[in-house]
Amino acid sequence: MKKSDRLTAYVERLDTDPELGLDPCYRGYFTCFNAGEYYEAHDVLEHLWLKRRDENHAFYKGLIQIAGAFVHLKLQSLHPDHPKHGRRLQPAVRLFLRGIEHIAPYGPRHLRLDVTALCRLCTKFANEIAASDFSRNPWTAAQAPRLELSAQP
């Protein structure tokens, strides 16, 4: 089975709210993200990003990068002494900053997402990591951030 077919089947199994009138892959991104499944969130939205080149292309790219940053933080938190995973804080900061660059122009709100709040969240994480000279990971599973879509367009 091809990756695109696997992702389509995966998105169909996600518990997303079709009443929002948003693409299932976009909604699936938030379902996965809020479950701490950052790699899956990245994959689900990348599936949409690769097949659509519209006015939201850069926005989706930024969200994908932000999910990627959280992949790095989660892996570093789970395996801080691992030779590869232990060195993921700098790449996480780079992805946070790139993600912010891509989504900020869509603010303050876009596709039912509070873009300004997400930029603040990413900036906070990036600044905390940089202030520790890339030695402290502020992410914990117990306090993992959640991203909510508003009911209003």
What does this structure look like?
The protein has six helices and two strands; from the N terminus they run H-H-H-H-H-E-E-H. The mean pLDDT is 89. A hairpin with a 2-residue loop joins strand 1 (109-110) and strand 2 (113-114). It has a single domain (3-131), classed as Hyaluronidase domain-like (Orthogonal Bundle). By secondary structure, the chain is an all-alpha fold.
Structure summarized in a few sentences:
The chain has helices at 3-13, 24-34, 38-51, 57-78, 89-103, 115-131; strands at 109-110, 113-114. With 153 residues, the chain is mostly helical. The protein has a two-stranded antiparallel sheet.
Write the layout of secondary structure elements.
Blueprint: H1 3-13, H2 24-34, H3 38-51, H4 57-78, H5 89-103, E1 109-110, E2 113-114, H6 115-131
Antiparallel strand pairs: 1-2
Shape: globular
Task: Spell the H/E element sequence.
Answer: HHHHHEEH
- How many distinct helices? 6
Report the CATH C-level class.
Answer: Mainly Alpha
Would you tell me the overall average pLDDT?
Answer: 89
Largest sheet: 2 strands, antiparallel
* Assembly type: single chain
Overall structural domain count = 1
Stretches with pLDDT under 50, minimum 5 residues: none
Query: Can you count the beta strands?
Result: 2
Q: Which superfamily, in CATH terms, is the homologous superfamily? A: TTHA0068-like
Name the structural class: mainly alpha
Radius of gyration: 15 Å
Helix content: 55-70%
